[in-house]
Amino acid sequence: MAAMPFVFVLIWSTGFIVAKFGLPYAEPLTFLLLRFAGVLIVLLPLMWLMRAPWPVGRMRHIAFAGILVQAGYLAGVWCAIKIGMPAGLSALIVGMQPILTAFAAPLVGERVRGRQWIGLMFGICGVALVVANKISMIGLSWQSIALCVFALLSITTGTLYQKRYCASFDLRTGTVIQFAASIVVVLPFAIAFEHLDASLSNVQWTANFIGALLWSVLALSIGAIFLLFALIRKSAATQVTSLLYLTPPTTAVMAWAMFGEAFSITGMLGMVLAVIGVALVVRK
């Protein structure tokens, strides 16, 4: 479907909006655990009713890729924002993923052409312009920077690993495996650092929080992830990750529409550059 990349970008771009609604009411790892558990609650009955096949022989590869893409990436970004990392700067750091993926493309048997390298440069310049007026160094710490860099390396490695070792699998059972593995990894850290208990006493169940959680489960962790896996299956890793250049501009437009955040001429120029960059990368 020609519209699949655009639908993916629109849904994926709501991630920072969800953080704005959800983080005031729960610690980041606690929120992510509820999000991962919600995915299992939705998918397990569907998987059983539809008799979805298990990916025999590739479960450990699928689980490892899921830990990197889900637990590593999301935990890194959300924890960084929670301890003071500005959302604009975190978007810029994570926005380096297409460049890293392009450098590592030979590892998965892909070749990045000269036109695509130009597009990648255009894309990162566009992202920088979009988030330039949102970057603040107030409250910045080495811990928050380290968490964002960890998130960047995690999602880049996870995308390449999945492309190489388990690009094709049933999305229903594969997603269940990935989120179950992510729960196993994140749970001990939530108990140790966020004092998580069985009563979930550290969660405020407000309307905003519930709405953010439901959107995270249904739209982001099921809808967007299914689209991401489908794109990884049918396209080169560099082409897929270049779509993430469109996330900061799209998020900026959403923040302007929903919260009245400023959207400057510089940001508009950045959006144009990002679109041109992605077009250069994905054009056949």
Automatic annotation (TrEMBL):
Compartments reported by the entry: Membrane
Per the record, the domain of life is: Bacteria
User: One cellular component GO annotation, for this chain's record?
Assistant: membrane
Q: Where are the transmembrane segments?
A: 32-50, 62-81, 87-105, 117-136, 142-161, 173-193, 205-231, 243-259, 265-282
Keywords on this record?
A: ATP-binding, Membrane, Nucleotide-binding, Transmembrane, Transmembrane helix
**What membrane topology was assigned to this protein in its record?**
Multi-pass membrane protein
- In the UniProt record, the signal sequence range is none
Which segments constitute the EamA domain?
A: 6-131, 145-282
What is stated as this protein's family in its record? Belongs to the EamA transporter family.
Q: What is this protein called?
A: Peptide ABC transporter ATP-binding protein
Species per Swiss-Prot/TrEMBL record: Noviherbaspirillum denitrificans
- Read off the lineage from the record: Bacteria, Pseudomonadati, Pseudomonadota, Betaproteobacteria, Burkholderiales
